[in-house]
Amino acid sequence: MCTPAAVFLWHMKQKKKYTEGKIFNSLFHLAVPIILANILQTAYQLIDTFWLGRLGANAVAAVSISFPLLFLVLSLGSGLTLAGTVLVSQYFGAEDQEKVDFNSSQTISLVFFISLFLSVVSYYSAAPLMQLIGAGPEIIEDSVSYFQVSSIGFVFLFMFFAFQSLMRGIGNVMLPVYIVLSTVFLNLILDPLFIYGYGPIPGYGVAGAAVASIITQAISAAIGLWILFKGRSGIKIHFNQMRPHLFTLKRIVNLGIPASIEQSTRALGMTFMVVLVTGFGSEVVAAYGIGARILSFIVIPALGLAIATTSLVGQNIGAIKIKRAEKVANLSSQIAFFGLTGMGMLMYFFAEPITAFFIPNDPDVIKDASLFIKIMAPSFGLLGVQQVLNGVFNGAGFTKASMLISILNLWIIRFPLAFMLSHKTDLSYEGIWWAFPISNLIAALAAFIYFKQGYWKLRLFRRRN
C-alpha cells in the first residue's frame, strides 16, 4: 500500500533527481519516456495511414486534409495543459505540494470545459471547414465524416493530455507511457475492425479509424483521471478544488494562451499549406500527407527533448537554480541538433522505401512524397534546436517568446515562401517542399540569438528580487 509518507519521500527523491546531479542523466530520464510516449501517440496516425492506404490514395488524402484542422482545434486547448506543466514543475521544484495539487485540479477543470466546447463546435463545423480548405468531391464525404467522429473524442483526448502534462511536470514520465502503449496495441486491433468490418460489426471506411481512436482515447482518459483522484502517483486532485479560482485561472490562461497560439499557428500553417497543396490534385495531397506524417514522426525526439527541457527548466527555476537551468538548455540544444541531423540523413537515404510502405501501389505518390522527405531531411537538426529553445522559454514561463518564434517560422517565412515558389516559379508544388528547410533555418537562428541575449533569465532575476 502506498502511504502518504511514501508518496512524500518519492516527491523529495524526484525533486533532487532533477535539480541536482548530472544534467545529462536528468534529461535522459525525462526525455526518453516522453519521446517513447510521443512515438506511441504518433503511432495512432501511422496505423491509420497504413490501413487506410489499402483503401487507396483518396482515403489517405481525406484523412490528410482533415488532420491539420484537427490539430488546429486540439492546439486551441492543449496550450493550457502546457501551462499546467509549467506551474506544477515550478511548485514541485519549490517543494510546495499543496499548490501542485491545487493547480492540477484547476487545470483539469478548465481543460474539461474548453474541450467540451471545442468538441461541439467542431462537430457542427465539419462540412463548411472541409469545403473552406478545398476538399475535392472525391474526398469531401470521407473527410467530413472522419472529422466529425474525431471531434466527439476531443474531451477524452484533452483529459489524457492534461493528465500527461501534469505527470511530466513532476517528473513522473513513465506512467503515461504504459497507458499509451496499451491503447496503441488496442488501436492496432480496432482499426481494421472498424475500417473494414467483421461479423456483426459494420465497416465504416475512413470514419472507422476515428471510431477506433475514440474508444482508446476514452480508456486512456478514464485511467488518467482515476490515477489523479487516487493521488498515489505524485498529484492528487480534488473536486472541491475545481471550483473556479480567478487568480489561478488567470495564471493558467496567461501562460496557456500564448502556448495555444503557438500551437495553433503551427496548425493553421499546416492547414494553409494544405490549401496550397490541394490546388495540385489528390495525388500531391496524399504525398504531402505522407511526408507531413513522416516529419511529425521524425521530430518526436525534438519535441520530447523540448517537453523534458520545459519540465527540467521549470523545476530548477522553482528551486532558484538559474545557472543550472541554462546548462540544461545548452546541453539539450546540442543533443537535438546532432541527433536529429543524423536521423535526417537516414531519412534522406531511405525516403522511397518508407513512402512505399504506406502507399505501395502508387508510383507517382511515392516519387513526390520521397522528394518531399529528402528536401526536408537535412534541416531536422535546426528544427530540433528551435523546439528545444521554445521548451526553455516555456519552462521559464515566457511562453510569448515561443509563440513569436512559431509565428515567424510559419507565417512570416514558410507560407509566403511556399506560395511564391509554387506559384511564381517553375518549381510548381516542389516549391512548397523547399519552404520547409528554409523556414527551419531562419527560425532556429532567431531562437538561438534570442536565447543568447538572456532576456528570459533577466525576467526571472527581477521576479525573484
Structure characterization notes:
With 465 residues, the protein is mainly alpha-helical. The protein has one domain (21-464). It is 84% helix and 0% strand. The protein has 18 helices and no strands. It has helices at 4-19, 23-53, 57-93, 97-132, 140-152, 154-169, 174-196, 206-230, 246-278, 282-298, 300-318, 322-349, 351-358, 363-376, 380-395, 399-423, 430-453, 455-464. The longest helix is centred in the N-terminal third of the chain and has 37 residues, at 57-93. It is globular. The model is unreliable at 461-465 (pLDDT under 50).
Strand residues, percent: under 5%
Give a quick account of the main beta sheet: strands, pairing sense, barrel closure. none
CA(first)-CA(last) distance: 43 Å
Radius of gyration: 22 Å
Helical/strand content category: mainly alpha
Mean pLDDT: 83
Quick one: overall form?
globular
Roughly how much helix do the residues carry, as a percent range?
Answer: over 70%
Order of helices and strands: HHHHHHHHHHHHHHHHHH
How many domain units?
A: 1
Low-confidence stretches: 461-465
Record field, number of beta strands: 0
Number of helices: 18
